[in-house]
Amino acid sequence: MENKEKDRSSVFHRAWDIIAQDKSIEPDEKEGILKLIQVLVEAAEASPTRQEKDNQVKTFTQEVISKHALMVMVKQQADELDALKRIGLNLTSSLDLQTVLDTVVTEAMKLIKNARAAHIFLYSRGALDFGASLDSQGVSNKPIAMPRPNGLTYLVVNNGLPIIVEDIQAHSLYVEAPQEWHGSIIGIPLKFSNSIVGVMNISRSTTGGFTRSELRLMGLLADQAAVAISNASLHKGVTELANTDSMTGLPNRRALDERLQDEMRYARSMNSKFSVVMMDLDGFKNVNDTLGHGIGDDVLRHVFNYLAEKMRATDFLARYGGDELTLIMRDSDMEVAGIVTNKIIELMKAYSYPIPGSIPIQLGLTAGIAVYPLHSHIASDLLRAADAALYRAKKHNRGKFVVAKAGTGPLDSLSFSISKKD
User: Fold this and answer.
1) Rounded to an integer, what distance in angstroms lies between the CA atom of residue 363 and that of residue 283?
2) Is the link from the previous residue into 149 a cis peptide, with omega within 30 of 0?
3) Angle CA(121)–CA(127)–CA(129) in degrees, nearest 5?
4) Which of 34, 106, 352, 366 could lock 360 by a disulfide, CB 3.0 to 4.6 Å apart?
């Protein structure tokens, strides 16, 4: 019995030596293979001689390894097909550019073992702009650094080929990189119709090359991502064109209606307020009547863009129609709306449109304010309330603003007291 145990131990050592030398087998899978060999060795113990046992052990081991390699390859191909199916479905589910970019970096993080972060930079007119990012902690759209002119990302654009850096700390591209940057990284061009639309960078916490399977999947992801980004960019361009006033370049009534719905949803989810300000140019009719519609259109173009440049980043200014503008201010109550509207009125007082050989044109501005949810919970009614307030301001308080009528008297009285102080 003791000799049989020694024989079995010797068999396992020889089998393990054979398995250990095969670098294609993952370390965590080797133990499972050895257990399988144990079963086969026990079945081979009926063999009469040591030589036959040794031969059988070697044969069993090699066969197990061979079958394992085949199963690994089959599983790998199945996993790749699943990944491609998932990627294809996710990338074609939306035409929103940011959604597409977020999907690409999410899928990229799934393809690479020990992935630390994935970044996409969009390329247009010789410049790279940040598109999306995701790191291993789940933090999204926070770039580590913007592309350097002599860095990896621009190098990928200029070469048009993938670039692999197996050790960041030892590579010349990262001589001046922070000490905490380590591991490996790959930069892949996103090409559509022989044009580069972006670059996808994927970094790992480990050094060394990427496997053939990873490179193949990342290449396929890059191909699909380039098509999806191009389609989404085209859709964005068409949408922006449809939502832009052709004369002034400002958002049009259609864009205004969409933004109002977005602000409604945001305010409801955040339990916050927002303001709508309807504005009308004072004296503009006289410009059209005396100088003609050609000059009138040019005046509108200059005035509206002058005001748009003065708006805050969070404000949304649209052309409502004719010489009317609509301003939407997020997270603003009646007090904030009143302060901002007064500033806009003062800006118009300081503006003049030069006419060669004539006195410059000076225009005024009158406004009506409505606040969600004080004046309405419905977008169209909120807009109507602000428009009605504008009508009353033009009739009784030209050059000032009036707040929309509310369900109670005190609010309306307060609105007139505010506007009369200015």
Assistant:
1) 6
2) no
3) 35
4) 352
To which H or E segment does residue 49 belong?
A: none
72's tokens? 């690994």
Q: What is the number of other CB atoms lying within 10 angstroms of the CB of residue 384?
A: 17
* 7 or 124: which leads in pLDDT: 124
DSSP 359-395: PPB--EEEEEEEEETTT-SSHHHHHHHHHHHHHHHHH
DSSP class per residue in 110-125 = HHSTTEEEEEEEEEET
Closest CA relative to residue 393, chosen from 420, 361, 421? 420
Q: How many Cβ atoms sit within 10 Å of the Cβ of residue 314?
A: 10
CA-CA distance, 89 to 389, in Å (whole number)? 49
Q: What is the Cα–Cα distance from 323 to 303, expressed in whole angstroms?
A: 10
User: How many percent of the chain have pLDDT more than 90?
Assistant: 44
Q: What is the pLDDT of residue 280?
A: 94
Residues 312, 331 contacting (CB under 8 angstroms): no
**What pTM, to 2 d.p., does this model score?**
0.53
| 368, 383 contact by CB (below 8 A) | no
| Selected residue with higher pLDDT from 213 and 8 | 213
